[in-house]
């Protein structure tokens, strides 16, 4: 007897055949295959997943464990990305789960007008992310203020005053770095908003989730016309330089 399953939803698109290629090719969360659920002229990209692995308690554990969260987020994004390569897709939030595919079909029918409106709004646009990171360690090393003792060992006896001076210098350098990173983030956001149709400010990413060394200062997403993508990249990258 098979264990009870539930429906994990990645996103919604139009029921025009353009997303059929995702079925059987994309691998979803925990390696589960991707299916299409159709209703009201729309299709939802879903995976049948074990209910025990995606109930409220199990999802809470996944979201609190950075390794499990990263694995879930990457799998979710991979399906959305594969679908987006074929058609306009309205992504769902990470870990959106319904009791079964019939309930997914009900959601499609009940929100058909809104989903159709949003898909039309997204036509001809791409989503671009802009992130700013500050890396105090690299900055200190470049500035020549990094600790000189190998392995981070404390300075030799009698050099306490020099050590304190070095610590103060590094602290001022770190504060200057964060101010500079904040200024870059503000300027980049100002430029990006002028070139984007819509903008969303996400919470800064923590630790390994950022995928970068240093501290994530800004994590923004912009909806940009496909025709304007090259200009957007050029002008935002000019701010970074």
Plain-language structure description:
- The chain has helices spanning 56-64, 66-84, 101-110, 112-122, 136-143, 160-195, 229-240; strands at residues 5-14, 35-39, 42-50, 90-98, 125-134, 198-201, 215-225.
- With 241 residues, it is α+β, with helices and mostly antiparallel strands.
- It has a 4-stranded antiparallel sheet, with helices on both faces.
- The longest helix is centred in the last third of the chain and has 36 residues, at 160-195.
- 21% of the residues are buried.
- Residues 145-151 have low confidence and may be disordered.
The stretches of 5 or more residues where confidence is low (pLDDT under 50) are 145-151
Please give the number of β-strands.
7
**Percent of residues in beta strands?**
15-25%
Task: Give the overall form.
Answer: flat
Order of helices and strands: EEEHHEHHEHHEEH
Query: How much helical structure, as a percent, in the residues?
Result: 40-55%
Mean pLDDT over the full residue set: 86
Which value, in Å, is the CA radius of gyration? 23 Å
Q: How many helices does DSSP assign? A: 7
N-to-C CA distance: 60 Å
Q: In this structure, how is the largest beta sheet organized?
A: 4 strands, antiparallel
Q: Strand order within the widest sheet?
A: 2-3-1-4
Q: What class do helices, strands and sheet pairing give? A: alpha+beta
């Amino acid at each position: 007897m098979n264990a009870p399953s539930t429906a994990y939803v990645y996103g919604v698109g139009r029921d025009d055949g353009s997303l059929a290629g995702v079925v059987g090719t994309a691998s979803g969360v925990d390696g589960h295959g991707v299916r299409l659920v159709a209703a009201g002229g729309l299709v939802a990209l879903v995976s049948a997943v074990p209910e025990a692995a995606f109930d409220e308690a199990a999802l809470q554990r996944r979201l609190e464990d950075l390794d499990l969260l990263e694995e879930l987020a990457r799998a979710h994004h991979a399906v959305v990305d594969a679908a987006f390569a074929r058609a306009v897709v309205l992504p769902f939030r990470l870990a959106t789960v319904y009791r079964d595919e019939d309930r997914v079909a009900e959601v499609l029918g009940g929100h058909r007008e809104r989903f159709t409106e949003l898909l039309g709004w997204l036509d001809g646009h791409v989503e671009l992310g802009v992130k700013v990171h500050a890396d105090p360690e690299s900055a200190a090393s470049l500035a020549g203020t990094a600790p000189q003792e190998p392995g981070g060992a404390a300075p030799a006896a009698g050099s306490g005053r020099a050590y304190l001076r070095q610590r103060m210098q590094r602290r001022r350098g770190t504060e200057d770095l964060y101010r500079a990173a904040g200024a870059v983030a503000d300027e980049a956001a100002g430029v990006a908003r002028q070139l984007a149709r819509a903008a969303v400010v996400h919470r800064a990413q923590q630790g390994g989730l950022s995928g970068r060394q240093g501290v994530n200062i800004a994590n923004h997403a912009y909806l940009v016309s496909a025709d304007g993508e090259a200009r957007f990249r050029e002008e935002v990258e000019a701010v970074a330089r």
